[in-house]
Write a structure and sequence with these properties.
By secondary structure, this protein is of the alpha+beta class. The chain is built from three helices and six strands, in the order H-E-E-E-H-E-H-E-E. It starts with 13 loop residues before the first helix and ends with a strand.
């Protein structure tokens, strides 16, 4: 689904989401598009064709932190993708707009 100038997608696993984000960035290389991606996993609320919930907001805020051609993930995603071949570097603790606590964020650097 679209969210203004962005897209929101759901996946059946966090590693698939991270790899998909990396593939979109790779496919867009050489174009004038600057793809930025944020990945988080958590419970969502289904509202007809739409989704809502804190997990959606966290993912959106992490995406807003990403630079061009960058995939950022929450610590939840990093932990759940252990053993998947994905490699991350620490991007620090971040204050996410509208979210009370800080979240540790990681940059996907290999395996995507």
């Amino acid at each position: 689904m679209t969210t203004g100038d962005g897209f929101l997608a759901t996946f059946d696993g966090p590693a698939r989401a991270v790899r998909f984000a990396g593939a979109v960035i790779d496919d867009a290389s050489g174009s004038n598009l600057e793809i930025r991606a944020g990945v988080h996993t958590g419970e969502i609320e289904l509202l007809g064709e739409d989704i809502s919930g804190v997990a959606v907001h966290v993912g959106s805020r992490i995406s807003a932190l990403a630079g061009p051609c960058e995939v950022l993930v929450s610590s939840t995603v990093k932990d759940l993708t252990a053993g998947s071949g994905l490699v991350y570097e620490d991007a620090g603790a971040q204050k996410l707009k509208g979210i009370d606590e800080e979240w540790r964020v990681f940059r996907a650097v290999r395996g995507i």
